[in-house]
Specification:
This protein is of the alpha/beta class and 301 residues long. The chain has helices at residues 19-27, 70-81, 102-114, 130-143, 160-169, 188-204, 242-249, 254-271, 291-294, and strands at residues 5-13, 45-51, 54-60, 88-94, 118-123, 148-151, 172-173, 212-223, 229-239, 274-283. It has nine helices and ten strands. Strands 1, 2, 3, 4, 5, 6 and 7 form a seven-stranded mixed sheet that branches. The protein has a three-stranded mixed sheet with strand order 8-9-10. The protein is globular.
Length: 301
């Protein structure tokens, strides 16, 4: 019988390259918020994959971007601080890049400094021709001795085992750090906040900039009249401006109802329990520079 292996794998890349979509594909559960927006992931979320002979713990980091606020600085610090502790790095880039851009160059330098085992994943291959892809592979292969270069589409399940098999090859013999039934170290409260924020970002499109965060103030389990277990969840969506508040609530509260409905359906599927969700919207103009709030997004060991 093969010895059991385990290890920590950091997912790193620029914003919007599809890291969270990839994490959810690999874990097989929804642990990371997915929205077609820059900086959807604010914290380093752990996703856990339990296989027959291994346990792989993924850390999905915030996308690399130019910091403009205290929050942005913390997000960058979180991304780079996860590199030294990783057993394997998954460096995700976009197939649509013609060459190595500034953001990817910064990440490459950090990888070179760490000298860690790194697998290069080229995402969104369905959007480019083969010649473009081969040119990109050649450019990156000259920069670093990658353990493997795998062209993928993070929305296609056929790549899941290809990636996991490659990671497993490079792990050391070690124990299971988490229970074999677990798929994330996030609490239900954090997962609820992530879900509500994701639905808000998706439904609001570009009307409200990225300046929202969600706080679950109450999460209590009880039995309803039918004797079924139900979670009462009270959550507040904070935004930066009064004008944003109006957009989030919508005409006669329609937008807020849509956000709540979509989040509730998702949570009921993920948590396997009925949800009674109540949401409010409040303005907190300086939250992105507020130390107490921002420190929630720092990497927790």
């Amino acid at each position: 019988m093969e010895p059991f292996k385990s290890g920590f794998v950091t997912l790193i890349g620029r914003t919007n390259v599809g890291k969270s979509t990839l994490l959810n594909l690999l874990v097989g559960e929804k642990v990371a918020a997915i929205a077609n927006k820059v900086q959807t992931t604010r914290t380093a979320i752990k996703g856990i994959v339990n296989r027959e002979n291994s346990q792989i713990i993924f850390i999905d980091t915030p996308g690399i971007h130019k910091p403009r606020t205290k929050l942005n600085e913390v997000m960058l610090e979180t991304s780079f601080s996860s590199i030294p502790d990783a057993d394997v790095i998954l460096f995700v880039i976009e197939a649509t890049s013609k060459n190595i851009g500034k953001g990817d160059s910064i990440i490459l330098e950090k990888i070179k400094e760490s000298n860690k085992k790194t697998i290069l994943l080229i995402n969104k291959i369905d959007l480019v021709k083969k010649e473009t892809l081969l040119n990109l592979i050649e450019q990156y292969s000259k920069q670093y001795n990658f353990e493997a270069v795998i062209p993928i589409s993070a929305t296609n399940a056929k790549y899941k085992d290809v990636i996991l098999d490659e990671i497993e090859k490079h792990l050391k013999v070690g124990p299971a750090y988490y229970d074999m039934e677990e798929y994330t170290d996030q609490t239900l409260r954090q997962l609820a906040e992530e879900t509500i924020r994701e639905k808000a970002l998706k439904l609001l499109q570009d009307e409200v900039p990225h300046g929202i965060y969600v706080e679950v103030e109450k999460m209590q389990e009880r039995k309803n009249k039918k004797g079924e277990n139900i979670y009462d969840i009270d959550a507040t969506i904070y935004c930066l401006r009064e004008s944003h508040k109006g957009i989030i609530i919508g005409k006669q509260g329609e937008m807020l109802k849509k956000i709540g409905r979509a989040a509730r359906i998702d949570m009921e599927q993920n948590f396997g329990i009925k949800i009674n969700l109540k949401t409010w919207v409040k303005v907190k103009e300086d939250w992105q520079s507020n130390e107490t709030i921002v420190k929630q997004f720092k990497l927790k060991s």
